[in-house]
Design a protein that fits this description.
Strand order of the largest sheet: 1-2
Strand content: under 5%
Shape: rod-shaped
Largest sheet: 2 strands, antiparallel
Organism: Candidatus Mycosynbacter amalyticus
Protein name: DUF2809 domain-containing protein
Number of helices: 2
Number of strands: 2
Structural class: mainly alpha
Helix content: over 70%
Keywords: Membrane, Transmembrane, Transmembrane helix
Distance between the termini: 67 Å
Length: about 110
């Protein structure tokens, strides 16, 4: 799930980056002045990365919580199924013990203790 969160975040950031690059191309074609830089980054880039990160986190948190709930329900169902199988096995074991205590003709075996 975290991988998909990263993919969503990277996709959003890239889409904002493409949008910014397209805006710069249009601005340069129209002869407008270049957007001012802040230490190698445009202020628009910083805003785009921030918006992308916030959106990725906001989109992924409910998805991650839903996945955790689903995994918890699945674990609970597996535990219940294992308990049911254990109970059936113990009942079957009891049935074979009582059946084994009788002879072929349905009479109880008598065991002599020495």
């Amino acid at each position: 799930m975290r991988q998909s969160c990263w993919r969503i975040g990277i996709g959003l950031v890239l889409s904002y980056g493409y949008e910014i690059a397209a805006g710069r191309m249009v601005a340069s074609l129209e002869g407008e002045k270049e957007i001012p830089y802040i230490g190698g980054f445009d202020w628009v880039d910083i805003v785009a990365y921030t918006i992308g990160a916030v959106l990725a986190i906001g989109l992924c948190q409910p998805l991650y919580k839903a996945e955790l709930e689903l995994a918890a329900r699945k674990d609970e169902a597996v535990r219940a199924e294992k308990a049911r199988i254990r109970e059936l096995r113990s009942e079957r074991k009891k049935a074979t013990i009582t059946a084994g205590a009788r002879s072929k003709h349905g009479r109880k075996r008598s065991r002599k203790r020495q």
